[in-house]
């Protein structure tokens, strides 16, 4: 359906351009206006994305797509007689005569009711062949087409194809070169760390991806570089509808993924569900070299992962004013990880082989209930939402050290880690359009998080630990906006009370309690329908997450141990952003500039172990105040009927300042020294789609990421080229796709650093692979979803080494 609507809109645009260039009229003659609202006859709910076409003597003159609230407004019409047609798949077409004159320059068609077309309801909702990018007032929306789902089996694999987004070999995600980003699913936070979550979501379950780079006060202030919201499919078509997706990735070993999306809609009730799974062994290898003693650490990593994602929910349309909805997301993840680390020294008698095995079992359940009330006043709404999630993880780690020196016996020990998290979020939101140009939004929120971590070991050199981390956040916000003919603005503020308390073995490890105001402001200017400019300001915060603060071992090797830092302070960011959107005759162009001021930036540090300077500690710390700036440019352009391209580039620069450990040759000890760098990052992507026939399409994708200097390590450049194709059959109900990722096997993560020791390293993974996917969809009808608020988590997350 989306594909057909896009074609209609594109043709309407062409006809509009032809009509506008064929005759010239005075400003007075082009002052006509036609407005109205489209609703569904059965539910009385507004219908978004309905095609409204204006015809003159049977020929298309212009047109528009309705908003999410079913509204349309067609301006700058010559004062003549017209026929307005309302066209929407699954509904009967409605025609309305309109006469515009000097005495009657505007025509309000009021509420137009669309009735279902029983014949058209037998159709099928088709996922667009290619992804499209929409630049909305507060976010960039990537509507996921088959070209993106062909990129791989999971969300992690398709994210690197998104403009401004990067995913490293460990699955850690960054936006505009910064890892301080919130990742949401259906507008809700997850207790699962983002890098793991992305690997568990099947790519075929994703409907769209939203990038919110400078959120207003309406949104929680977490995430320096913004929010990434992954919206899963939730069909609400009448009758039974389903789509089946299966994928097979060929690399060192095959990996399997499957997804089933279903919904059943009858009358006032809609049931929807999703099930997806991923199975397969994933490999990672690398080496870290110490230049001071000529030693090497050789890593061989193997992870046997099994994940299941289940979503089930129901919408109940009580009447035309009240709707209640509920759903649950259930994630089950099991992993058997084997990490072999071989420490090779110039003196073979000092060599060490560490064999470690990690048995991980975690579950995450989210339970959500929402109620939406529409008042008698147009646009006035009240939303209440309650979200409760429970996360549980059990991990057993088994270590065995083997020495080449026969005088040193082998040693072995086991670690076990149990973690439980409970989170409850309650939101109340009120929207009131004070008049046609003014809107007021008010809201309140309560967030409560409780975590328990138990660490046990049979290693005599280590001790058992119990760590708890409790968080309470209470906030309220207000935004006020007005929109005039060409200019609009919005002012807002969020007031927040924050309480956190961490306990280690019964002793307070960290405690903080403060009240903060987060202001925001934005202004838009549209000199014409094809040009839009926006400038915005916001204050945001990155609070240390549980994975960054818990002083328990996350990872250990003979030379490196990763632990959290319970004394981390929040980092605050003031951000100014400028965006420009240009609608072209064959596509669109979007550009953006941003400047940030960062206080107490949270970042990775590495320093010698005080107990053994031959070993290193990997942790987190607060850096000094920093500044950052950057830009991005992306385009959707249809060169001709068979070729379209989507180029994108982005650049970011951050002046980082922090403490590093440097050897003092006089005392043979390490001193903390301030180091400052300008870390610049450049990324480029080029996606090209070729239409060989009505059923056969090919794609070519290129990616480049520049090297980036950091306070601790300098990362090397990365690049790759992918190619693939898709074939549709069975009247476009089925699609077979294939994609060859990293054709020339060029992807690798290299780095070097001088502190605390001169080191060089490189890691590789199964970047070169072939993905084969099959999709089959059946069912049909109209689509109508309960509009939900989009929210985010409140803590900055850490990431694992692998």
Biggest pleated-sheet summary: 22 strands, antiparallel, barrel
Helix segment tally: 5
Estimated share of beta-strand residues: over 45%
How many beta-strand runs? 43
Broad shape:
globular
Roughly how much helix do the residues carry, as a percent range?
Answer: under 10%
Based on CA atoms alone, the radius of gyration comes out at 28 Å
User: Which class do the helix and strand fractions yield?
Assistant: mainly beta
Question: Can you describe what's shown?
Answer:
The protein is mainly beta and 802 residues long. Helices cover 5% and strands 62% of the residues. The protein has 5 helices and 43 strands. The strands form 6 sheets. It has a 22-stranded antiparallel beta barrel. Strands 8-9-13-14-12 form a 5-stranded mixed beta sheet, with no helix packed on it. It has a 4-stranded antiparallel beta sheet with strand order 3-2-5-6. The two termini are 41 Å apart.
Task: Give the arrangement of secondary structure elements.
Blueprint: H1 2-22, E1 32-40, E2 51-56, E3 59-65, E4 71-77, E5 81-87, E6 94-99, E7 106-114, E8 132-135, E9 140-143, H2 146-149, H3 155-159, E10 165-167, E11 173-175, E12 181-185, H4 194-200, E13 206-212, E14 226-232, E15 239-250, E16 255-266, E17 269-290, E18 295-317, E19 322-344, E20 352-374, E21 381-403, E22 411-432, E23 438-457, E24 465-483, E25 487-504, E26 507-528, E27 531-542, H5 546-549, E28 555-556, E29 560-562, E30 571-584, E31 587-599, E32 602-609, E33 612-622, E34 626-640, E35 643-664, E36 669-691, E37 696-705, E38 714-715, E39 718-729, E40 734-741, E41 749-753, E42 759-765, E43 769-778
Parallel strand pairs: 1-7, 12-14, 29-33
Antiparallel strand pairs: 1-4, 2-3, 2-5, 5-6, 8-9, 9-13, 10-11, 13-14, 15-16, 15-43, 16-17, 17-18, 17-42, 18-19, 19-20, 20-21, 21-22, 22-23, 23-24, 24-25, 25-26, 26-27, 27-30, 28-29, 30-31, 31-34, 32-33, 34-35, 35-36, 36-37, 37-39, 38-41, 39-40, 40-43, 41-42
């Amino acid at each position: 359906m989306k594909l057909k609507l896009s074609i209609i809109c594109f043709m309407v645009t062409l006809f509009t351009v032809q009509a506008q260039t064929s005759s010239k009229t005075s400003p007075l003659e082009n002052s006509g206006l036609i407005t109205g609202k489209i609703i569904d006859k059965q539910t009385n709910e507004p219908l978004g994305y309905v095609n409204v076409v204006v015809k003159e003597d049977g020929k298309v003159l212009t047109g528009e797509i309705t908003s999410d609230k079913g509204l349309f407004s067609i301006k700058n019409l010559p004062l003549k007689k017209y026929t307005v047609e309302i066209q929407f798949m699954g509904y009967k077409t409605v025609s309305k005569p309109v006469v515009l004159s000097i005495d009657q320059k505007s025509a309000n068609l009021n509420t137009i009711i669309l009735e279902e077309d029983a014949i058209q309801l037998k159709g099928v909702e088709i996922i667009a062949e290619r992804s499209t990018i929409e630049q909305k007032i507060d976010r960039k929306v990537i509507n996921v087409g088959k070209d993106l789902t062909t990129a791989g089996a999971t969300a992690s694999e398709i994210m690197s194809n998104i403009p401004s987004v990067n995913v490293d070999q460990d699955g850690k995600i960054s936006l505009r070169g910064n890892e301080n980003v919130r990742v949401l699913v259906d507008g809700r936070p997850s207790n699962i760390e983002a890098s793991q979550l992305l690997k568990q979501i099947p790519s075929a379950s994703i409907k769209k991806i939203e990038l919110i780079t400078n959120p207003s006060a309406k949104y929680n202030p977490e995430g320096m570089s913004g929010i990434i919201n992954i919206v899963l499919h939730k069909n609400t078509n009448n009758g039974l509808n389903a789509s089946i997706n299966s994928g097979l990735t060929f690399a060192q070993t095959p990996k399997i993924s499957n997804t089933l999306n279903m919904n059943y809609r009858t009358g006032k009730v809609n049931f929807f569900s999703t099930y997806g799974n991923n199975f397969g062994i994933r490999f990672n290898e690398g080496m870290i070299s110490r230049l001071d003693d000529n030693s090497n650490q050789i890593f061989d990593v193997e992870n046997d992962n099994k994940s299941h994602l289940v979503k089930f929910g129901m919408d109940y349309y009580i009447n035309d004013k009240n709707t209640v909805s509920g759903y649950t997301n259930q994630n089950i993840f099991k992993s058997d990880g084997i990490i072999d680390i071989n420490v090779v020294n110039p003196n073979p008698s000092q060599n060490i082989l560490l064999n470690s095995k990690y048995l991980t079992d975690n579950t995450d359940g989210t339970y959500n209930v929402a109620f939406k009330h529409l008042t008698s006043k147009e646009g006035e709404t009240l939303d209440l939402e309650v979200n409760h999630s429970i996360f549980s993880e059990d991990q057993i780690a088994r270590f065995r050290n083997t020495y080449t020196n026969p005088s040193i016996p082998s040693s072995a020990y086991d670690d076990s880690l149990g973690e439980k998290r409970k989170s409850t979020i309650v939101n109340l939101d009120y929207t009131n359009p004070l008049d046609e140009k003014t809107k007021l939004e008010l809201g309140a929120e309560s967030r409560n998080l409780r975590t328990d971590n138990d660490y046990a070991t049979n290693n005599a050199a280590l001790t058992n630990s119990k760590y708890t981390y409790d968080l309470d956040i209470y906030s309220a916000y207000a935004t006020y906006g007005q929109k005039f003919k060409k200019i609009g603005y919005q002012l807002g503020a969020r007031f927040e009370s924050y309480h956190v308390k961490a306990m280690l073995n019964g002793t307070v490890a960290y405690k903080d309690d403060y009240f903060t105001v987060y202001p925001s402001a934005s202004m838009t200017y549209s000199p014409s329908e094809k040009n839009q400019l926006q400038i915005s300001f916001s204050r945001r915060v990155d609070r240390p997450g549980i994975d960054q603060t818990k002083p328990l071992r996350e990872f250990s090797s003979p030379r490196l141990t990763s632990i959290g830092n319970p004394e981390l302070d929040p980092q605050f960011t003031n951000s100014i952003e400028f965006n420009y959107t240009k609608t072209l005759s064959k596509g669109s162009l979007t550009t953006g500039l941003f400047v940030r001021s960062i206080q107490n930036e949270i970042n990775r540090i590495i320093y010698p172990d005080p107990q053994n300077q031959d070993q290193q500690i990997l942790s987190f710390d607060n850096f000094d105040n920093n500044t950052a700036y950057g830009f991005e440019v992306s385009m959707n352009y249809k060169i001709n009927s068979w070729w379209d391209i989507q180029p994108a580039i982005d650049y970011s620069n951050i002046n980082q300042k922090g403490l590093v450990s440097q050897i003092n040759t006089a005392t043979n000890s390490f001193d903390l020294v301030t180091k400052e760098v300008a870390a610049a990052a450049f990324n480029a992507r080029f996606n090209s789609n070729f239409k060989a026939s009505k059923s056969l399409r090919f794609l070519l994708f290129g990616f480049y990421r520049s090297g980036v200097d950091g306070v601790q390590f300098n990362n090397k450049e990365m690049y790759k080229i992918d190619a693939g194709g898709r074939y549709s059959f069975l009247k476009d109900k089925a699609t077979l796709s294939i994609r060859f990722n990293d054709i020339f096997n060029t992807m690798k993560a290299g780095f070097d650093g001088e502190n605390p020791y001169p080191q060089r390293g490189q890691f590789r993974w199964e970047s070169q692979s072939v993905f084969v996917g099959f999709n089959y969809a059946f069912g049909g009808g109209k689509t109508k979803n309960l509009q939900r608020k989009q929210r985010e988590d409140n803590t900055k997350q850490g990431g694992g080494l692998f």
